[in-house]
Amino acid sequence: MWRDSKFRAIGKKEMHSFESHVNFLNQILPREFTVELATVAEKVVGMIAYNRSQINQLYIHSGYQNTGIGKKLLDRAKEQSNGTLTLYTFEVNKIAQRFYEKNGFVSIGRGSDNEENLTDIKYEWKAI
Q1: Could you say which of 41, 70, 81, 118 has the lowest number of CB atoms within 10 Å?
Q2: Which strands, in side-by-side order, build the sheet including 55-60?
Q3: Following CA atoms 50, 55, 56, 62 in sequence, which dihedral angle do they give, to the nearest 10 degrees?
């Protein structure tokens, strides 16, 4: 789900092996982030990785976008935050940009410091 969703979002094939991603999701990411999954009928349809100040990953299976799952995961991260959250999304991912902006995030910068060598947008959300 994660790899397919990312490919659909940015149009680039994954450079890491499936096994490498499993290790990242199970061993590396949970060291700094809470990882939560959304399931429908025991099928993983979404995932988020967050801590009190940052969202590192948020992916929703393409067949389950616009169903409220992404908002529910995002709201969970907001509830657990210190009142401010930052995240990055790729500039080519217009769907993600609209989603984050609709949910109170504002663009605060741009860069390309990522292994995909794509321009990304840094977003920030602050509790009112």
Answers
A1: 41
A2: 34-40, 43-50, 55-60
A3: 100
Element (H, E) at 62: none
pLDDT along the chain (128 residues), means of 10: 66 73 87 96 95 95 93 98 96 93 96 78 95
The reported pLDDT for the residue numbered 98 is: 96
pLDDT value of residue 109 = 94
HSE, CB side, 13 Å, CA atoms: give it for residue 7. Answer: 8
Tokens in use for 51? 């801590």
Q: Which helix (H) or strand (E) holds 121?
A: strand 120-126
Q: How far apart are CA 126 and CA 103, in angstroms?
A: 11
pLDDT value of residue 17: 80
